[in-house]
Amino acid sequence: MTSPDDAAVGSATTAGTRRLALLSAASAAVALAAADTYVVVLALTDMMAGVGIGIDALQRATPIISGFLLGYIAVLPLIGRLSDLLDRRRILLGCLLVFAVGSAVTALAVEMPVLITGRVLQGIGGGGLVPATLALVADLWPPHRRGTPLGVVGAVQELGSVLGPVLGAVVLAWSGWRAIFWLNVAAALVLYAVIHHLGSRSVPSGSERGGSARRRRNRALPVVAAVLTVLGLGVTGLALAAPESLVTDVALGAPFVPFAGTSRLLTPIGVVGLGLLLVVAALTAPRWWAVLRRADLVGALLVAVALGSLVLTFASSDPEKEVVGPLGYSLLPVGALALVVLAWWHRRAADPLIPRGVVGARGLRALAVSLLVGAALVAVVVDVPLLARLTDTYDETGAALVLVRFLLAVPVGALLGGWSLRRLGDGAVAGAGLLLAGGGLLVMSRWTLESVSATVPATVVLVVVGLGMGLALAPVNNAALADSPADAHGVASSLVVVARMVGMVVGLALLTSIGLSRYFEAVRRLPNQLDTGALIGAGVVQVQTVFLGGAVAALLGAVAAFTLGVSGRVTATEAADADAPRFVAL
């Protein structure tokens, strides 16, 4: 006969196994989305050709990248807020579906607007996975035990960025660029099945129990909506695919004939597919509209406008000519106005998108550190390959492999940073890591062509910088989560991610602009501006300037990080919290 104590131990073991399994599945989803951020680097020219854009019109391909960034950043706070109002697992599942649909649309696209739409959907789904997973860690682990799982999430996210170009190269070696996105669809659906299975025996959260009886009384609507959704997606996908065997058939080809132009969506079958999806939206509107209102839809729209304006301003700029993109002088005032209105709305709203108390205490400082980490990170990611390509030693592949030394060190640093939080405070770990990164970047700011060609010394410096930046990831997330209310962990996590991405986008534009300014100044001083060796030397000056800017960002981040606290002692309250029942969204 099993004793109560044995039963309790068995139950705790099962729960522990399930939470680790859920963390593993969610982390794999984060890695998948992170890989997709960089996977288009190698496939970009093929994707342009796939939608009828020549290599001579490279500037028209900008939306392929900026569309993903726009979707990734602009709606993150809203998704974070939704993850606070609903079961985290439901948000993970929803984001995976959006990511899968976006990947399928991208794979089927033969028109630029469709391709951009697919990339935006990928960004929304992929970006939403990160705050939902970080908030899930806060649900499943007590404050003083979150370090390692937060480190795991940070590590797999960075590992995904390493694997993305590699996987892209492997796929392109045996197939076309569309296969990359079909693999995304398959992987997302597998992860959806795993996460759904892990939560199949869960107890609804408190916010959902009240609606259980109503759902039992009205099961018809979800079934009808699901069937219509599958039909709508299938018909729309068929319209986008436009199989030649059907299109060229005398009888079956009529629904594929465009009403005007060549758009595959402006066809009878395309209109039917979109119409079915609109019917689903109308049928389910009472449910999702109520949730969006609770999440503060007005605040979410203002945040999306502000962040979207910022992303499009800097992501679409040509650093060789400008810091602000072509539409920036119109977008930046719009974004600034949105921020002013958001500040007014935040004080007025009864339940704002960003709950009061989230951006306060250590939270604001954690966001500042995350912003500076993003600026320092992008300096390395962009300019290390650039410097390597200036040498006679490395071709394009070799330059990418030089960067891999840094990229592999970042996830290792993230794991070490999370583990270190068992003994040290957030500020001690993050501050020490950014000091290492800043010191390494100062060394890199004096690199020459010979320096990057010296394999062992260059590897040591790149590994030190990578480890340093990785060390800061988990502490920043931990500080933001620890100082935010339990019902706002999703929003807090999303703001940390947004800050880092904004740091990367703005940092890239500013640092590259400053570096190019020094490059052109050096070129003007050359007695012979046709001297190839002298021009390469001016290019080295540009890269050194960017590295110096990255070092400044990292060292400022270290100063801010140390204010997050250096003590890692566990309080009595936290120790008691370790044994208290916790909400587990399984």
Write up what this structure looks like:
- It is globular and about 70 Å long.
- Residues 4-11, 201-214 and 569-586 have low confidence and may be disordered.
- It has 586 residues and is mainly α.
- The chain starts with a helix and ends in a 7-residue tail after the last helix.
- It is 77% helix and 0% strand.
- Helix 15 (362-389) runs antiparallel to helix 19 (455-482).
- The protein has 22 helices and no strands.
Please sum up the structure shown.
The protein has 586 residues and is mostly helical.
Secondary-structure map:
Blueprint: H1 4-50, H2 62-74, H3 76-85, H4 88-108, H5 112-140, H6 147-174, H7 178-198, H8 206-209, H9 212-217, H10 220-241, H11 244-247, H12 268-294, H13 297-315, H14 328-348, H15 362-389, H16 396-420, H17 426-444, H18 449-453, H19 455-482, H20 489-524, H21 532-562, H22 572-579
Helix pairs in contact: 1-5, 1-6, 1-7, 2-5, 2-13, 3-4, 3-5, 3-20, 4-5, 4-7, 4-10, 5-6, 5-20, 6-16, 6-19, 10-12, 13-14, 13-20, 15-16, 15-19, 15-20, 15-21, 16-19, 17-19, 17-21, 19-20, 20-21
Count the E strands: 0
- Low-confidence spans: 4-11, 201-214, 569-586
Strand percent estimate: under 5%
Sum up the overall morphology in one term: globular
User: N- to C-terminal separation?
Assistant: 29 Å
Class from secondary-structure proportions: mainly alpha
Taking all Cα atoms into account, the compactness measure Rg is 25 Å
Topology as a string of helices (H) and strands (E)? HHHHHHHHHHHHHHHHHHHHHH
For the residues shown, what is the average pLDDT? 81
Number of helices: 22
- Percent helix, as a range, is over 70%
Largest sheet: none
